[in-house]
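Following up on my earlier thread - several people asked me to post the actual chain instead of describing it. Fair enough. Here it is, all 482 residues.
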Amino acid sequence: MSHADLRGNPTGSASTAARDSAERALWRMMSFYDPPLADLDDAIAADGDWMLPHLMKAGFLLSLTEPSLLGEAAAALDAARARADKATDRERAHLDAVQKLQEGRWAAACQRWDEILCVYPRDALALQWAHLWDFYRGDAANLRGRPARALPDWDADDPLCAYVWGLYAFGLEESNLYPQAEDAGRRALSLNPRVPWAVHAVAHVMEMQGRFEEGGAWLRQHQGNWAEGNGFATHLWWHKALFRLEALDVAGVLRVVDKYLRGEDLQIGLQRVDASALLWRLHLLGHDMSAAFRGVLDHWPLDDAHAGYYAFNDVHAVLAMLGCGEVARAEAWVARCAERALDASESGRSNHPMAREVGLPLMRGLLALTRGEGDVAAETLYGVRTIAQRFGGSHAQRDLIDQTLLAAAAQGSGAIKGSLGRSLLNERRLAKPVTPLTRHWLERLGLASSAGGARAESRADAAPARMSPGDPPALPSDAGQP
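Reply from S.P.:
Thanks for posting it. Predicted structure:
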């Protein structure tokens, strides 16, 4: 007798209690409302022979990109393998994908999930996991395309449909389709207001369009659904701080840092990455953030297992080291990452090309900037900026590269300072209205009074912010609040 989940996908368990617990765990993975581990343990208790809950536990642990969790993930994967003979073909395909994850073959895992979705487009687990690792690999085409291929087969009244729209919204945003992304995100929230990924996608749109006042209001409007009891809260506080930073409201940024991004409160690497990236942006503006950097670094386990595991995290660890003045430690860390990146035995891992092509040049450019070698830093960073999506993250996260480049240009000599700085700011001014942060860089590079700069700034300032039909009125200013 065959059994199925709520979307008709075949499963290997006859236990309704086990399937219900696994469904709650899946919802937690897509919504970020508390970790799914307790629900998965309930599913295992209800049906000890069912493979999928063990596999979901392994995949969830691997999704945190935390080397310290690899042993626990391996144990859960071993437990899944031991039950594979009672699994369905769909579940065994998931097992194959997660085994590829464990081996570091992230692209191959995503390909396996794509094969599952061609047959089972309402397999929410495949959509969620593929989306995360598309993000970790910087694969914008599949961030957009994979949910798009599945969504027409979903019913709007499915409890998880809103979350799939949230995935699609973020994929559209990372594909630079900003109006469509905002519409998709708002559609997700019209189906269910408790979809933090959709709130996040619209916040990204507003960040990329320079709508910093509206962005802060957007996050505050939805704050009741993401700020408490949600694993995504740290990242959304990071977004709120970015909107404050765009306005050069440094006091507002520091309030967010002090309340939500302190080292002792950051439990996993993904959260430490956010803190490190935000502090670095303040550091580039000339603020002494060494004490805050120290708090992050002291709570970041950085051993041999971490060095070279994921280039995106490696770069942000270097930011924390440099931010609190530990240049020698940063140099040693880069050397350890380089050793792994150049090791031929690592060539099967997705991180191998990420590290060689993007991670190592970025870290070397950061070292050069810290040593006062502005020209070297600018040349190194500029050489990698157009391929930086290959090491993952979002447009908003990778904007740190451009802001570091602007600092390198300001530190550099004649041609670098005049030509590169002007070119970067020309690009920025045409991408979105000139914000206080952009004006800061114009002034620092001595371009604020240039005729061409004034004309471009005037045109950009006149560009209207994109609003969707039915947008709520602007909320009152939240000055003085985190």
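DSSP finds 24 helices and two strands in the chain. That should answer part of your original question.
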